[in-house]
Amino acid sequence: MTAFTHTIVRRPSRSLVDGITSAPELGKPDFELAIKQHNTYIDALLACGVDVTVLPPLEQYPDSVFVEDPAVITRCGAIITNPGADSRNGEKDEIEPVLHRFFDDEHIKHIEAPGTLDGGDVMMVGDHFYVGRSARTNEEGIRQFFSILKGWGLSGSEVPLELVLHLKTGVNYIENNIMLVSGEFIEKPDFADYTKIVVPEDEAYGANCIWVNDTVIVAEGYPTVLKAVQDAGYKTIVVDTSEYRKLDGGLSCMSLRF
Length: 258
What we know:
Elements: E1 6-10, H1 31-47, E2 51-55, E3 71-73, E4 78-80, H2 91-99, E5 108-110, E6 122-125, E7 128-133, H3 139-151, E8 155-160, E9 171-173, E10 178-181, E11 195-198, E12 210-212, E13 215-219, H4 223-231, E14 235-239, H5 242-245, E15 256-257
Parallel strand pairs: 1-2, 4-5, 7-8, 10-11, 13-14
Antiparallel strand pairs: 1-15, 3-4, 6-7, 9-10, 12-13
């Protein structure tokens, strides 16, 4: 188990209200409330003992608060992804200079077109990385990603997705061989060897929790998830992400943790 020391977040832009969504029935985000929720999210990360690099908003990229997608960070280096949504692809060029504060050129790699990869499709379990093949992450992107991992002595495996936007929409690793799983991931053979916390359908959004140095940050409003995580022995911090849910975003989406 590796402790995190650094996190990177990006402030939401006012253009957030025009971000991509598969759930327009939830309404547009309230920008002022989104700012308050982001502040609470940063406070939660700080309470877990990490430093937080706070990047300025990018008005030209409404979804750029979801800073996890344009990069994946491993213990060996960073990989600049090639996000699959056209409106988000330029975010990779904005995150790269930031990563140069932490890594030299040799330890920053790139996914190149026609490969596409979203960080939300990548789940780190020690030195192994599960990658969801999705509408945003294609076969060539996964091939390049695994090639980079192999060069660093790391490994990966592909997980086909059927219903969800990103892999971590429905499965999240919280260390100690424990995963939160919902929906299509409950019975996937890829995760048969893990202890599973099964998330009920009516709390499926709550499956997107994040482990940060023995504390699990849980979305507000999912009491079954919160109790199950606490019963598993973890300290917890609850953070409201209601405005980010309106854009298909969750807790893991809003930071890079390394």
